[in-house]
Amino acid sequence: MTVHTPPQSYMLRDIVEVAVAPSVSWMPQTIGWKVVAVIASAFAIVWTYKSLQRWWGNRYRREAIASLGLLLQACKISQEADKAYHQQISQDVYSVLRTVLSAVNPQTRSLYGLPFLQSLDAQTKPGLDVFASQWSHWPQSLLVKQNALSKTELLALIIDSQAWVKQHLSLAHTVSGEISNA
User: Fold this and answer.
1) 148 in any annotated domain
2) Fewest C-beta atoms under 10 Å: which of 105, 109, 153, 163?
3) CA-CA distance, 122 to 129, in Å (whole number)?
4) How many whole angstroms separate alpha carbon 166 and alpha carbon 163?
């Protein structure tokens, strides 16, 4: 704070200094605004916690989508018509889907073939059963090199797999839905 001294000039001697107004506090002065601030900050903390929890819980989806994207790029740029190469990409897609499905439902780790495809479809919304109907020949192509999927089939499989990873229902979501329906 500065101390005001009277001016030394005779012309300014009779001028009276204007009093400086006290500074206004930025803190609310009524209890209502403090309550609103506490409620808003509690809501922000809960929302941030839930968002971080959802982001952390969906990390397996991001990793699977990135892996499937790499497989899609590898399949698109490959000039090879080699069945072993196509079979390897197909096995990599199966490995990614199996990992995601076992993260969602650990009881499905040992499934293979049609039960595996049905469990994939069981994790989607009703009416979106793509794997058991359209890809029933896929498990056989994983075992026998002569039955390997073609490049166009592989591209379609990877695109369907990416859509499934993005849209599948997690087991926790399904369980909470069953609890709310009860």
Assistant:
1) yes
2) 109
3) 8
4) 5
